Amino acid sequence: MTGPDAWLPIAISGAALAVSCVSAFISYLSYRASGSRVEIQSHRWGYRGEERWLQIKLANQGRAEVAIEGAWANWLGSSVSNLPYQLKGGASHSLIFRGVLPPAQYARGPLVIQVGLGNGRTILKRINFKDNDLMPIKQANVITGEFEVEEV
């Protein structure tokens, strides 16, 4: 074959290659979305007397559920929430940490939160602590992981 007819099989093959690449990319995106994607979405500080409370909100933006095996905040210690907890796909859950912060001269750097997941992954988040983030706690429920603060 010579002339314009020679390019027809090449054009069809090129179009098939482009469609295959798009299909592979869509399959990859679907695969990434099907697993668990957990992140620390927000945090909130509170206090009762000398005890500091930290609430973090975990969100699973993937489809698969994952177990929250444990959580640790360097100055506040282990989470007081009931763990392990099975976090469903597309859901969120709050964890509470309570403890006494060290004096300012010893508490250099951010507070580091580590959350261990059942799939072997660990989530790390660094939170800079400021005294003006603290709000007095009006009511707290450790079981649900929620607390209400008084608006000042």
Description:
- Keywords: Membrane, Transmembrane, Transmembrane helix.
- The chain crosses the membrane at residues 6-31.
- The chain has 2 domains: 3-34; 38-149, Immunoglobulin-like, CATH 2.60.40.1890.
- It has one helix at residues 7-34; strands at residues 38-48, 51-60, 66-73, 77-78, 85-87, 92-99, 111-117, 122-127, 137-141, 146-149.
- With 152 residues, the protein is α+β, with helices and mostly antiparallel strands.
- The protein starts with 6 loop residues before the first helix and ends with a strand.
- Strands 3, 4, 5, 7 and 8 form a 5-stranded antiparallel beta sheet that branches. A 3-stranded antiparallel beta sheet has the order 1-2-6, with no helix packed on it.
- The mean pLDDT is 81.
- The chain is built from 1 helix and 10 strands, in the order αββββββββββ.
Task: Produce a short descriptive summary.
By secondary structure, the chain is an alpha+beta fold. The protein folds into two domains: about 5-35; about 40-150, Immunoglobulin-like (Sandwich). The protein contains one helix and ten strands; from the N terminus they run H-E-E-E-E-E-E-E-E-E-E.
